[in-house]
Amino acid sequence: MSLNTQKAQQIRSMVFKIPPGKVASYGLIADLAGLPGRARLVGSVLRNTPDKLHIPWHRVLKSNGQLAFKAGGEKARRQADLLWQEGVVVSNNRVNLKRYLWQPDLSELLLFEY
Questions:
Q1: pLDDT by residue (tens digit) across 5-64?
Q2: pTM given for the model
Q3: For residues 10 and 1, what is the distance between their CA atoms, to the nearest angstrom?
Q4: For residue 43, which of 83, 8, 18, 88 has the smallest C-alpha distance?
Q5: Lowest CB count within 10 Å: 12, 24, 32, 73, which one?
Q6: pLDDT band at 107 (very low <50, low <70, confident <90, very high)
Q7: What pLDDT does 4 receive?
Q8: In this structure, how many other beta carbons lie within 10 angstroms of the beta carbon of residue 106?
């Protein structure tokens, strides 16, 4: 497995761990995947992950709680709709991180198999 493939797998594994109804930032996913400071890499991996993997990309937001896409755009509406379906309130293209931020404990990080 190449280093890039390994990094992508680490990132995907963390994104799969975000439970429905919770969100995480690109930076948090990078940190948890052992790639601190690589938030943009998380975005790149999510953009390039095949749809057939059904990764819950919609649960990953900017660090300020803002959706990943420009307000009013089709992708932002899709992300907001997927979050609403999980009970996450999206208001003005933003999610309240105090309410919905995923803060995993060690057992969540260790007991999940990709």
A1: 899 999 999 999 999 999 999 999 999 999 999 999 999 999 999 999 999 999 999 999
A2: 0.89
A3: 12
A4: 8
A5: 73
A6: confident
A7: 78
A8: 7
Coil/strand/helix, residue 54: coil
Work out the burial of residue 34: count CB atoms within 10 Å of its CB; fewer than 13 is exposed, 13-18 middle, 19 or more buried.
exposed
pLDDT at position 106:
78
Closest CA relative to residue 56, chosen from 99, 93, 97, 102: 102
User: What length is written for the chain?
Assistant: 114
């990132």: which residue's tokens? 11
CATH 1.10.10.410 given to domain 3-101: no
Locate 40 and state its tokens: 């943009």
Helix (H) or strand (E) holding 94: strand 94-95
Helix or strand run (H / E) with residue 50? none
